[in-house]
Design goal:
Elements (H helix, E strand, L loop, with lengths): L9 H9 L5 H19 L2 E4 L1 H16 L11 E5 L26 H8 L3 E6 L33 H8 L5 E6 L5 H7 L2 E4 L19 E6 L2 H11 L29 E5 L9 H16 L3 E5 L7 H16 L18 H12 L2 H14 L4 H22 L5 E5 L15 H5 L6 H6 L3 E8 L5 E7 L5 H15 L8
Parallel strand pairs: 2-3, 2-4, 7-8, 7-9
Antiparallel strand pairs: 1-3, 4-6, 5-6, 5-10, 9-11, 10-11
Helix pairs in contact: 2-3, 5-6, 8-15, 9-11, 9-12
Length: 487
C-alpha cells in the first residue's frame, strides 16, 4: 500500500525533496491533514502554526527551484515542545501561568532549525513546566498514547513522543531533565536522544532545573534523530553552560558495526522494580548485539539506589529558584483585584501554578531553607559527584551501558496521578543520566502482549553520542525499527 508522505522518515523525505519527487508545500499540507485527522484522538498539539508553515514551505520550494543549496532538513515538518521559545507563536509550558504568553524571540535551537529551512508545525503538549512523567499535569489537555488511547504517552515530552508516533510530526524537539525525552519515547515506541549536557544550547528553554535540563530530538528512527541533533548542537554564546567544542556530523558517521563494542549491564537497573518482560526484551536485544560482535560485562553502579532522591532534591531546589520569576508583575498570569502586592504574589502563584508544580516548589524551598540545606541539598550534591565518578569508572572497562528506559509499559490515564511517589518511580532508570551529564538514547526493543512498546536505554561517555547512536542503529536494523500504531 502506498505510504502517505507524513508516514515516511525524515531522511527519506529529505532525499525525495532533493530529487524533486515531492514538494515541501505538498508535504506540509499533508502533514496538517494528518494532524487534523489524529488530533481529536491524540491531543498532542497545544498550538498549530499552519498558515505560516505552509507559507514557509512554499518559500523553501522556491529556493530549491532557484538552485539554492539547502540542508537535509529543508522543508521537513518539525514539532516543538511548548517550553521552547518560538517568536510569535504562543509558548505556554502547558501552564495557566503562561497561557497567553507569546515570545518576542526564538530559542537558539529554533533559530538553528530555521537556518536549516525546517518547517515548524506547532507547539506540543507537555507536563506543566516539564514536571511530570505522564503529560497529565498539562493545564490544557491530556495527551493520549497512540498505541492505546486509554494510556499515557509518558512525560514530560509526551506531546512530542505521541506526535511522532502518530505521524503528526515527522520529527520533534523535546527537553529532558530526568528522562523527559527518553521515557515518553519508550512508551510511544519511538527513538529519543538526551544529548550530553552542554552540547545543545538551552537559551530560550524555559528553565526547570538549569543544571539538568537538555533539549534533544525525537524521531521514528535513529537516522532521523541524527539529522535533528546535527542541526541543533553546537556552542552558543547566549548559554553560559554551552560547551565550546566542534561537533562532527552524527548522520555522516552513522555505522552499525558493533564488532568489539564493550557493553556494560548494571545489575542495579535490573532489580525487582523493573517488570520481568521489560528485562527480557532488553537482554534479548543485548544478545542480538553480541551476535554482531559486541561483548558484555556485568557492572555495578551502587549509588543508583540513591539516584531518585538525589535527583528530586536537586531538581526541586533549582525549580524553586527558577520559577520565582513568575510573580504576575511583568508577564504571564496575574490574579484579579489583588488587595496588595503580597496578595498579588500569593494569589497569582497559587492560581497560576498546578498542583505538581506547587508541590515541587514547596519541596525545593524546604531543602534550601536554613537548617535543611546541609542535611539535604549539600548531601545531594555530594552524592551527585559520587554518581558521576561511578559512571566515569565504569567507562574505563566498557564503551556503552545498556538498561531499560522505563521499568514498565505505558500505564492507564489516572492510575498514578494521585500517587506522586509511584509517578516519580517511572524515572528510576533515567535520572542518573541527567545527574551525571551523560548522553543516552532510548530505542524500541519489544512489545507487551497487548502491543505496548518497551524501550532500551543506551548510555555513553560525555560527548560520545556517536557510539550510542551507532549501537542504537545496529539494534534498530536487527530489531526492525518503528512499528506504526493502529490509530
Amino acid at each position: 500500500m502506498q505510504l502517505k508522505l507524513y508516514e515516511y522518515k525524515a531522511y527519506e523525505l529529505s532525499d525525495m525533496l532533493k530529487k524533486n519527487q515531492i514538494s515541501s508545500c505538498e508535504l506540509v499540507k499533508e502533514q496538517f491533514e494528518r494532524i487534523e485527522e489524529a488530533e481529536p484522538s491524540v491531543s498532542a498539539y497545544l498550538t498549530l502554526n499552519k498558515d505560516a508553515a505552509i507559507a514557509d514551505a512554499c518559500e523553501i520550494d522556491k529556493k530549491r527551484a532557484s538552485g539554492e543549496e539547502l540542508s537535509r532538513l529543508a522543508g521537513i515538518p518539525v514539532g516543538i515542545k511548548d517550553n521552547i521559545s518560538t517568536k510569535g507563536i504562543r509558548t505556554t509550558c502547558a501552564s495557566k501561568m503562561l497561557g497567553n504568553y507569546v515570545p518576542v524571540f526564538n530559542a537558539t535551537v529554533v533559530d538553528k532549525l530555521k537556518d536549516c529551512n525546517a518547517v515548524i508545525t506547532g507547539k506540543l503538549n507537555m507536563d506543566e513546566f516539564a514536571m511530570g512523567s505522564s503529560t497529565e499535569n498539562s493545564y490544557f489537555q491530556k495527551t493520549k498514547n497512540p498505541f492505546d488511547l486509554t494510556r499515557v504517552p509518558g512525560g514530560s515530552s509526551g506531546g512530542s513522543a505521541a506526535a511522532v508516533a502518530a505521524c503528526e510530526a515527522v520529527v520533534a524537539l523535546g527537553s529532558d531533565t530526568g528522562g523527559s525525552i527518553r521515557q515518553p519515547a519508550s512508551l510511544c515506541g519511538v527513538v529519543g536522544l538526551k544529548p550530553t549536557y552542554g552540547s545543545v544550547s538551552r537559551y530560550g528553554l524555559v528553565a526547570f532545573a538549569s543544571s539538568l535540563d537538555q533539549i534533544g530530538p525525537l524521531g521514528r528512527c535513529v537516522k532521523d534523530v541524527c539529522l535533528l541533533q546535527d542541526a541543533i548542537c553546537g556552542y552558543d554564546k547566549m548559554d553560559a553552560t554551552s560547551a565550546y567544542r566542534s561537533y562532527e556530523s552524527l548522520y555522516d558517521r552513522l555505522n552499525p558495526n558493533v564488532k568489539g563494542l564493550k557493553i556494560g549491564i548494571p545489575k542495579e537497573y535490573f532489580s525487582e522494580g523493573v517488570k520481568a518482560e521489560v528485562k527480557e526484551c532488553v537482554m534479548k536485544s543485548v544478545d542480538a548485539l553480541v551476535k554482531q560482535g559486541a561483548t558484555v560485562k556485568e557492572i555495578s553502579l551502587p549509588s543508583t539506589d540513591y539516584a531518585l532522591s538525589v535527583y528530586y532534591i536537586i531538581a526541586c531546589a533549582e525549580a524553586s529558584s527558577n520559577l520565582a520569576r513568575f510573580d504576575g508583575v511583568k508577564y504571564g498570569y496575574r490574579c484579579e483585584n489583588p488587595e496588595s502586592l503580597i496578595d498579588m504574589y500569593e494569589r497569582t502563584r497559587s492560581e497560576g501554578f498546578g498542583r505538581e508544580v506547587k508541590r515541587r516548589i514547596i519541596l525545593g524551598t524546604f531543602v534550601l531553607s536554613s537548617g535543611y540545606f546541609d542535611a539535604y541539598y549539600k548531601k545531594a550534591k555530594l552524592m551527585q559527584r559520587r554518581i558521576k565518578a561511578e559512571f566515569d569508572s565504569a567507562y574505563n572497562d566498557v564503551d556503552v551501558i545498556i538498561t531499560p528506559t522505563s521499568p514498565y509499559e505505558a500505564f492507564k490515564l489516572g492510575d498514578k496521578i494521585d500517587d506522586p511517589l509511584a509517578m516519580y518511580s517511572a524515572d528510576i532508570c533515567t535520572v542518573t543520566v541527567n545527574t551525571a551529564g551523560l548522553p543516552a538514547v532510548s530505542v524500541p526493543c519489544g512489545y507487551s502482549d497487548s502491543g505496548l512498546p518497551y524501550g532500551m536505554q543506551i548510555i555513553g561517555r560525555r560527548f560520545d553520542e556517536s557510539t550510542i547512536l551507532n549501537t542504537a542503529y545496529a539494534h534498530e536494523l536487527a530489531f526492525g525499527g518503528f512499528k506504526s500504531p493502529k490509530l
